[in-house]
Write a structure and sequence with these properties.
The protein contains 30 helices and 10 strands. α25 links the parallel β6 and β7. The strands form 3 sheets. It has a 5-stranded mixed sheet with strand order 7-6-8-10-9. The protein is globular, with a radius of gyration of 26 Å. It folds into 3 domains: 162 residues, no CATH class; 336 residues, no CATH class; 117 residues, no CATH class. The longest helix is centred in the middle third of the chain and has 60 residues. The chain starts with a helix and ends with a strand.
Length: 691
């Protein structure tokens, strides 16, 4: 019954979103409205409880208010449709008959659903993860369960209580909402991800098909994006043993092979599956790009407002998607102004010249910075500041020229509306959550070359991007002026990501780079289709297309096969039994002392706070965890001399298990003499430390 209640609650918001999409996008096809309805339904479920939760907590009352707001939106939408006589019941399923490639999109979506389902397996009283989710899933579960169980809002990190949860937590709170209504943890985890996966795959195809205006080109771009992988497979062709370790060893895949510096991971397996913020961010980003494209290149004026609203809601869903969208808007605005002033061809020539000069320059700069030991340097930020200054000066001058020619009112009613609506919604989030954590240090700093390390700049990207990278380069250089302006944001995003990092881990810049790669895949598809048209005979053309496709997707297919085969125990039956006891016998906001393992059942399954979580999470979130980590060690190893720490940190329960014994030299004799046992299964002992 609880499963059905949670599913009904989720479906309610999906239906309300569908009603809103019918009214807002009444001119679009049924398939487009169906996609946007699902996206709007998910966004409503993420955002509508938030204003009420500030006053009512993350509670059922807040969610009932959110449901009421969603129903009001649906009723208003239906009233608008009735007045316009535009109510249509078509669900867009006929698109599957008109566009055969959508069956491929559907099959990949189903495959993704199976990957998500297999990544959270409850078998024989134990929970197993896949390879990609073994690291990240515990963190997301801790956010999911703690938000639902503790109910405080805005939430704190359950892994470091007292610090505001500034990670884009709406990607997890959407599951917390279902968990709150009694849906099981697995289904709460799975159902929103299944919807988001469909939104990403169909939204991606919707955008690229509109941008490229060709079904064949759109299909090629979509495959290059989601089946991305370079020449990493060459590292595994030396012998039979080398090849089969792809399917048996931990992270020995053709798209994620650190020993060979293969870092361009597969989008489906290593981004969408484990990184929920990326998944839910792209679920909003890709349809938003469709709206923006139609607004900028097809004159759909009201879509500027829609784009601004969805953009403004992105920061706490996925901050990197918001940032990438902002950069893309800036470059498309520049192209828009050049087109309005009839200077678009000149701009394309300059852009192509920068590519030709830029690639060898980046290689030379890498060599210089490596020899001078300045690959990490604040001076690189000054390079970005100078580039940003020049860009803003050029943009400002073009805006002035356009206004001088009588286009100021038009710009205010289009781009001005987008900017205003996005800022009104996004700035409160950025100021309350993002900037506060980013300002703590370790986020913005100068760093050259993403994750290249000591390897040659050009060789690194050749083997990582593979044939798709060469096709993209050809597409950029051969693009017509109008095409080039569409792809140009990729160059700006890539340049930015090569000179600075925006989080402690440089690798996370790929969350920006993959948005740029989306546009590069469009350029690659354009170039590939043009090249194939020059092969006059159908037979050789098909063979060539098949060979290119095989080379481009081979690494990705092997990686997906490994993910399907992966199975790692993350929580044993004892951990699950303990978490149930803790959930039933402790206060929702109880603070429990444990070790700092990443797969911590206390916070991930029971939703309780711990003194200090895994440094693999806290460090990359920029949190100053060192003091808490040291205090946890002292309380375990020298509790008698540091008894005041239990009171200082508010420890209410102490867990002593095989994990704690392996991490510390636990003085359990003192703990047992001082505090009563409330749980003991022979391996895990929980002590009541409340004073």
């Amino acid at each position: 019954m609880a499963e059905l209640l949670g599913a009904a609650f989720f479906l309610l918001f999906q239906l309300c979103g569908l009603c809103a999409a019918q009214a807002l996008l009444s001119e679009e096809s049924g398939g487009v409205r169906l996609l946007f309805g699902s996206v709007l339904g998910s966004v409503m479920l993420q955002w509508f409880p938030v204003p009420f939760a500030f006053f009512l907590g993350f509670s059922k009352a807040a969610h009932l208010c959110a449901a009421g707001l969603a129903l009001l939106c649906a009723i208003a939408s239906l009233a608008v449709l009735r007045r316009k006589k535009a109510l249509r019941l078509s669900l867009g399923l006929t698109a599957l008959r008109r566009r055969k490639f959508l069956w491929i999109v559907l099959l990949v979506t189903l495959f993704f659903w199976l990957l998500v389902w297999r990544s959270f397996r409850l078998e024989n009283g134990r929970i197993y993860s896949s390879q990609a989710t073994y690291g990240d899933m515990s963190m997301h579960l801790s956010f999911l369960t703690s938000i639902a169980r503790q109910g405080s809002f805005p939430p704190d990190y359950p892994l470091l209580p007292g610090f505001l949860l500034s990670y884009p937590f709406l990607s997890d709170s959407i599951s917390s909402s279902l968990y709150l209504w009694g849906m099981s943890l697995k289904w709460s985890y799975f159902l929103p991800m299944a919807a988001a996966g469909a939104q990403v795959f169909f939204g991606g195809y919707l955008f690229v098909s509109r941008l490229l205006s060709s079904r064949k080109k759109a299909a090629a771009a979509w495959v290059l994006l989601f089946f991305n992988g370079g020449f990493g497979f060459l590292y595994f062709l030396g012998s039979k043993e080398d090849f089969f370790r792809i399917f048996t060893d931990f992270y020995q895949t053709p798209t994620n092979y650190v020993e060979g510096n293969i870092r361009w991971v597969n989008v489906i397996v290593d981004m969408l599956l484990p990184q929920r913020a990326t998944l839910f961010g792209w679920a909003v980003l890709f349809p938003t790009l469709y709206l923006l494209y139609r607004a900028v290149y097809e004159g759909k004026k009201r879509y500027f407002l829609y784009t601004g609203v969805l953009a403004g809601l992105l920061p706490m869903v996925h901050t990197h998607s918001f940032m990438a969208l902002a950069l893309l808007c800036g470059v498309w605005l520049l192209g828009f102004l050049l087109r309005e002033l009839s200077w678009e061809e000149w701009g394309a020539r300059v852009g192509k010249l920068l590519i030709v000069l830029g690639l060898p320059s980046m290689w030379g700069l890498q060599s210089l910075l490596r020899h001078t030991d300045h690959l990490d340097s604040p001076a690189l930020l000054w390079v970005l500041c100078a580039a940003a200054g020049l860009f803003l000066l050029l943009l400002g001058w073009l805006l002035w020229k356009a206004a001088w020619r009588g286009k100021g009112k038009m710009l205010l009613s289009t781009w001005g509306v987008l900017l205003f609506s996005a800022c009104v919604l996004a700035l409160p989030q950025l100021c309350f959550w993002t900037f506060r954590q980013a300002g703590s240090g370790g986020f913005l700093r100068g760093h050259f070359g993403w994750s290249i390390g000591e390897e040659n700049y050009l060789w690194f990207y050749l083997k990582n991007l593979g044939l798709a990278g060469l096709l993209a380069l050809g597409g950029l250089l051969s693009a017509k002026s109008g095409e080039f302006s569409k792809y140009a944001p990729a160059l700006v995003i890539w340049f930015l990501a090569e000179f600075a990092v925006f989080q402690p881990n440089p690798y996370d810049n790929n969350k920006l780079l993959y948005v740029a790669y989306l546009l590069l895949c469009c350029a690659a598809a354009e170039f590939l289709c043009r090249a194939l048209r020059r092969i006059r005979l159908a037979g050789p053309r098909r063979v060539t297309a098949g060979a290119v496709a095989a080379v481009c997707v081979f690494s990705a297919v092997l990686t997906m096969g490994r993910e399907w085969n992966a199975r790692y125990e993350i929580f044993g039956d004892g951990a699950i039994a303990l978490s149930r006891f803790v959930e039933e016998n402790t206060e929702p906001d109880a603070l429990i002392l444990t070790d700092t393992r990443h797969n911590n059942e206390i916070c991930s399954l029971a939703g309780r706070n711990i003194v200090c979580g895994s440094s693999s999470y806290l460090y990359f979130h920029g949190l100053p965890y060192g003091k808490w980590e040291h205090a946890a060690r002292l309380m375990y190893e020298q509790p008698e001399e540091n008894e005041e720490l239990f009171r200082e940190y508010g420890v209410e329960y102490i867990l002593v298990s095989d994990f704690e014994h392996s991490s510390y030299q636990v003085n359990e004799a003192w703990i047992a003499a001082r505090f009563p046992k409330i749980y003991d299964d022979g391996v895990r002992v929980l002590y009541d430390a409340r004073q």
